[in-house]
Amino acid sequence: MPLPAIRVENLGKRYRLGATHSHTLGEFVSAAAGRLLGRRIGHIATPKLPDNASKQVDEDGNFWALKDVSFDVQPGEVVGIIGRNGAGKSTLLKILSNIVSPSTGRVTIHGRVASLVEVGTGFHPELTGSENIYLNGAILGMTKAEIRRKFDEIVAFSEIDHFINTPVKRYSSGMYVRLAFAVAAHLDPEILIVDEVLAVGDIAFQRKCLGKLGDVAHQGRTVLFVSHNMPVIRAMCTTAACLENGSLTHTGTCDTVLDTYLLATSTQTSCAADIDCTQIACADPAFALRRITILQQGAPTTHVSASLPLDICLSYTVLHTTIGLHVYIQLYDTDDTLLFESLHNGSYADVPTVPRGTYSSRVRIPADLLSPRRYELRILASIHNARSLLPSPIRVRLDVSPGGNANRAYPGYLTAGKLSPLLEWETTLAIPDSPAPYL
User: Fold this and answer.
1) CA dist 184 to 3, 79, 160, 187, 312, Å?
2) Do 48 and 37 meet the contact criterion of CB atoms below 8 Å apart?
3) What is the rounded CA–CA span in Å between residue 102 and residue 92?
4) Using one digit for the tens of pLDDT, what is the confidence trace for 232-256?
5) What is the pLDDT of residues 157-191, one digit of tens each?
6) Confidence of residue 437 (pLDDT cuts 50, 70, 90)
7) What's the whole-model pTM score?
């Protein structure tokens, strides 16, 4: 069995809260002068930690950004690293990239590593973009001939050829990212480590980078990718690992880990099929939401069949005649992608005037539209181009199971996609007497 490309064993990273370390000669001299003069030069005040990070502080006042993290990454594996802000994702990648040293445990890496963890990491500000390409290649252990062979391709990908002979200290953050990613992705590393820094670039370049990452992954190289973009993680990665409060909570297939993580973070989502909203929604001068009921075959449920229609029933009171008031629903998948939106009066020719009174609205999601998976239904109300009538959407989790109509000929096959409408097809036999094809 081949050796893992990356092996992490009992990894921990500890920081002393309120303390700084002198990394350069200037910082060391300033700190020493401050001690002689009785001043605390370079001291950083101890930050107020969020509630969910308090468990990372030990009794000695040490903050553990990572604690007892262990996992293996096999050669050619594409691993997505997910977790909330402050979970330890960037700290982990910095250790793997040899930017910072671990406090406990060890990391074993087999292969040449290229990393894009912080904007401009490894770039010398006084050198030009061209010189930094050669510098980064040399750091990766490549020969000058290898770098020269890739040079034009790197410059073309970065799209900053007019500035390639300009010192990078004059680059914008977007130009830094363009060149840094181009270098990291084109110098043929066995292991590529990428943090969320791609978010600095424009949308077109982000898409270009993600396409390049896909090409790198298909070439059999190992990729570690940190992102908060769940659809991108799901599309690119084969496996995933989730960090929480500096600890590794679960690893496994990408879909399993992402679904578990997204469910755990959806703290505002209700599983109830019949919700009394009088205690949930804050009163508005024009509107009061009273009840939400999810029905299938006349019974309240949030565990529904894909082959049966689904009704969402809303009860609300309009407190005075209002122009442009509407209630509506939105359906999201677990990646927080909006699939569709429907307004209760969206088909009106003119902006409607809603008189005072108590109303009941019902909207039907047709049978054979939703794929078997988990969704989030959001109920909203607003006055058009004026304000929202609810402090936040009411969220309801829907679990859709396979139905009896779709894929009857192939019962073991689940249609790909978030929606799976049973569309009407027409097939005719064009040439009845055609000979049998060769098998």
Assistant:
1) 24, 17, 16, 6, 50
2) no
3) 9
4) 888 888 899 999 989 999 899 888 8
5) 888 889 999 999 898 878 888 888 888 778 778 88
6) low
7) 0.66
CA–CA dist 269, 378 (Å, integer): 9
Q: Burial, 171: exposed, middle or buried (Cβ in 10 Å; 0-12, 13-18, 19+)?
A: buried
Q: Which two tokens stand for residue 48?
A: 């107020």
Q: How far apart are CA 226 and CA 432, in angstroms?
A: 56
- List CB contacts of 7: < 8 A, sequence separation 6 or more: 72, 73, 107, 108, 109
CA distance 219 to 198: 21
Pick the CATH number of 270-401 from 2.120.10.80, 3.40.50.300, 2.70.50.60, 2.40.50.870: 2.70.50.60
Of 121, 333, 117, residue with least CA distance to 227: 117
Read off the amino acid at residue 167.
Answer: P
Give dist(CA 81, CA 193) in Å, integer.
Answer: 11
> What is the total residue count of the chain?
439
Dist CA 194 CA 213 (whole Å)? 9
Torsion of CA 406, 408, 414, 415, to 10 degrees: -50
Strand residues in 179-306 grouped as ranges (E): 191-194, 222-226, 239-244, 247-253, 269-270, 274-276, 287-296, 299-300, 303-305
Q: Which residue type is seen at 144? A: K
What DSSP element (H or E) covers 45?
none
Which fold, 6-265?
A: Rossmann fold (3.40.50)
Q: Pull the structure tokens for residue 413.
A: 């096959």
Domain ranges of the chain: 6-265, 270-401
Strands 113-116 and 357-365: unpaired
Burial of 436 (0-12, 13-18, 19+ CB in 10 A): exposed
Helix (H, G, I), strand (E, B) or coil at 266: coil
Instruction: Return the DSSP state at 161.
Output: G
